[in-house]
Amino acid sequence: MEQMNELFYKDPYLREFDAEVISCTEGKKGFEVVLNDTAFYPEGGGQPADHGMLDEAVVSDVRKRDDVIIHYTDKPLTPGTRVHGVIDWERRFDHMQQHTGEHIMSGIIHRHYGYENVGFHLGADNILIDFDGPLTWEELMVLEEEANRAIWKNMPIQVTYPDDEELKHLEFRSKKELSGLVRIVEVPECDICACCGTHVSRTGEVGMIKCTALENRKGGVRITLLCGGRAYRDYCRQSEQNADISHLLAAKIYETADAVKALQKSDGEKSRQINTLTQRYLALKAEALPQGEYLVIDYAEDVRPVDLREYGNRLMEEGKAVVCAMYTNGSEENVYNYILLSQTVSLRDAGKVLNERLNGRGGGRPEMIQGTYRATREEIEAAFREVLVQGR
Ligand SMILES: [Zn+2]
């Protein structure tokens, strides 16, 4: 599991090192550099690769292939020379915090419920962990608090390499059957797990663990987790977001959800009032119209097209119109929503002519055409009167 030249195992806090270039070849992803020693962690065990520099060359990926660690760089390095390596420490320490937090959470869930971690993804934004049994949000919150208490105790994290005999008597979490030298990572009171990743040396360095989501999956659950700096940054964002909502709604910081509920309720009441008033307004308009007109042109401000349609249908049913041309104000100036209705006359041809004259869009069926016009009210009404005349 561990090679002699893997400096990240000897000291996971090593940020800079010197090494000799063994080989450098050009590949598809840039140059592939092999060193005699390296502190660059190669992608593995769910932990992403380190980034950093080798002299002037940028290291953008690190992989282990046939037990050889390959550094992918943007510039060639000369075999036989010595180079200075610098690890992108922000990135690595973040991975150490996330990875160790994952151990604490997985170990605690395993201890309480016996569930196995059956999937682990350390992404750029969060950690996803899949467990093979059900959990409620309330149960998860209890476990999350226990995980944070383990962090506050600032316990040392041990890495050991037990021999086969010791391994037989050791109970530890493991994703697969292991052979050879097994690296055991122990977080006291929380977890014993075989793992090849890099971890912080004391639980306190994890800083904080926060579960942000829980979803049911295939008889188990998927947990979204943030640790350390990620949890802190998330807290800052959420806090600012909630402070903004609190100001906007003039609500206390822990009462923003109640304030939104109240707003939704009043919004629903307003919608019902607007609907009632619109119906009454259109009914009054209809009452004021005489019987037996062929064409009724009508404009109604701030009325939804669906209400215009209902209004037109009412006029035709009451025998007040054969053809209705209704329109209302649209999303911007000189844009109007229109609807043309008739139960006896095909409006297909007239609809096309009106669209051409009024920069219109839309269509429909011979008995109902709707869409938008880009024109003035005068232009629209003049076009209606010319195009929608009886006998055409
Ligand atoms: Zn680990």
The spatial strand order of the largest sheet comes to 1-2-5-4-3-6
Strand content: 25-35%
Find the count of extended strands (DSSP E, 2+ residues). 18
Bound ligands, named by name, code or SMILES: zinc ion
Q: List segments where confidence is low: pLDDT < 50 over at least 5 consecutive residues.
A: none
CATH architecture of the largest domain: 2-Layer Sandwich
Distance between the termini: 88 Å
Order of helices and strands: HEEEEEEHEEHEHEEEEHHEHEEHEEH
CATH topology of the largest domain: Threonyl-tRNA Synthetase, Chain A, domain 2
Q: Main beta sheet, described?
A: 6 strands, antiparallel, barrel
The name of the CATH superfamily of the largest domain reads Threonyl-trna Synthetase, Chain A, domain 2
CATH C-level class of the largest domain is: Alpha Beta
The total tally of domains equals 3
Can you offer a commentary on this structure?
It is a single chain. With 392 residues, this protein is an alpha+beta fold. The protein folds into three domains: 7-87, Elongation Factor Tu (Ef-tu), domain 3, CATH 2.40.30; 93-236, Threonyl-tRNA Synthetase, Chain A, domain 2, CATH 3.30.980; 272-387, Diaminopimelate Epimerase, Chain A, domain 1, CATH 3.10.310. 35% of the residues lie in helices and 29% in strands. The chain has nine helices and 18 strands. It has helices spanning 7-10, 89-113, 137-152, 164-168, 228-249, 256-288, 305-317, 348-357, 377-387, and strands at residues 16-27, 30-35, 52-54, 57-65, 68-73, 82-87, 117-122, 127-131, 158-160, 184-187, 191-194, 209-217, 220-227, 295-299, 323-329, 335-342, 361-365, 368-374. The strands form four sheets. Strands 1-2-5-4-3-6 form a six-stranded antiparallel barrel. It has a five-stranded mixed β-sheet with strand order 14-15-16-18-17, with helices on both faces. Helix 2 (89-113) packs across helix 3, helix 6 packs parallel to helix 7 and helix 8 (348-357) runs antiparallel to helix 9. The longest helix has 33 residues, at 256-288. The radius of gyration is 35 Å and the shape is elongated. The model has no long low-confidence stretch (mean pLDDT 93). Residues 99, 103, 185, 195, 197, 199 line the site of zinc ion.
